Amino acid sequence: MSTASDTSTPETTIEAPAELPTITIKRTFASAPGRVFRAFVEPELFSRWIGPHSIEARIEHWDARTGGSWRYAAWREGERIAGFYGSFHEIRPDERLVQTFTYDGAPDGVSLDTMTFTALPGDGTRLTTVSVVESLEIRNLILASGMDTGVRQGYVKLDALLRDQ
Amino acid sequence: MAHDELSRAFAALADPTRRDVVARLATGDATVGELASPYGMSVQAVSKHLKVLEEAGLVSRTGAAHRRPCHLEADVFDLMAGWIERYRREAEARFARLDDLLAELDAPRSKAMNDPNPREEEPT
């Protein structure tokens, strides 16, 4: 809906076009692309930032190479509340990462996520994440449910929705 | 939209099922039966949710019959803007955590694990 014009502010921007089943997220970081990239492909780093503080991300499988795959679970108060998995479609170190993303309660649903790491002057990075899903309806459900808070219920309903169509 | 209407709209959208119904209607009109089937809910239960959405001015129906389509009255653009802003805040919270991690990685190695304010230590 908005675009960043000032690369010095790290504000997150989201684009969700009315006509395309995509979500584009842009953000700048005050670290070089290599460092930001590491935080996406090294499991011990990834698990430290991906979930909210109330949730512990436990890596269950992680093979970060082109053609590899990953799986992690969200734990809250000793309970496994959700699992996520996908493949590393392409790993191009420090530049580009292409992954699939599925919530394991809704195996029919998959998002294709492309992360691009662009170097900015002074050891900065612009991260652009483009997620593509099957339909506008699913894209809207993802936006309406919220990834952190409503992903579980949202995907369960989404699964039922897809089955019934 | 008057303040009362806005409050009613927000209250109506506080429920995840109603939010999903609205997300569904944002892509086109649908009958009560079509809306009910994905949830494994009865038509009566979905009708209750629709009544709340109707009273909030978000949805209209041309009649009582279940075959009549439900139509989203709310400005879809405004709704989407609200969802996107919430989604954006969640992404921003995630990236703020990544900022902290990167600051730690960029700090001198000896400090990396223990310094509570690693950003104040510039790497040399």
Write the layout of secondary structure elements.
The complex is a heterodimer of chains A (165) and B (124).
Chain A (H helix, E strand, L loop, with lengths): L12 E3 L6 E8 L3 H9 L1 H7 L6 E7 L5 E9 L2 E14 L3 E8 L7 E10 L3 E9 L3 H10 L5 H14 L1
Chain B lengths: L2 H11 L2 H10 L6 H5 L6 H13 L3 E3 L8 E3 L3 H31 L18
Antiparallel strand pairs in B: 1-2
Keywords:
A: 165 residues; alpha+beta; Alpha-D-Glucose-1,6-Bisphosphate, Chain A, domain 4; eight-stranded antiparallel sheet; 4 helices; 24% helix; disordered N terminus; B: 124 residues; mainly alpha; Arc Repressor Mutant, subunit A; 2 domains; two-stranded antiparallel sheet; 2 strands; 56% helix; elongated
Describe the overall structure.
The complex is a heterodimer of chains A (165) and B (124). Chain A has 165 residues and is of the alpha+beta class. Chain A has a domain at 32-134: Alpha-D-Glucose-1,6-Bisphosphate, Chain A, domain 4, CATH 3.30.530. Helices cover 24% and strands 41% of the residues of chain A. Chain A has four helices and eight strands. Chain A has helices at 33-41, 43-49, 136-145, 151-164; strands at 13-15, 22-29, 56-62, 68-76, 79-92, 96-103, 111-120, 124-132. An eight-stranded antiparallel beta sheet of chain A has the order 1-2-8-7-6-5-4-3. In chain A, β6 (96-103) and β7 (111-120) form a beta hairpin. In chain A, α3 (136-145) runs antiparallel to α4 (151-164). The longest helix of chain A is centred in the last third of the chain and has 14 residues, at 151-164. Mean pLDDT of chain A is 83; it is low at 1-8 and 147-163. Chain B is mostly helical and 124 residues long. Chain B has two domains: 3-74, Arc Repressor Mutant, subunit A (Orthogonal Bundle); 77-120. Chain B is built from five helices and two strands. Chain B has helices at residues 3-13, 16-25, 32-36, 43-55, 76-106; strands spanning 59-61, 70-72. Chain B starts with a helix and ends in an 18-residue tail after the last helix. Chains A and B meet through β2, α1, α2, α3 and α4 of A and α2 and α5 of B.
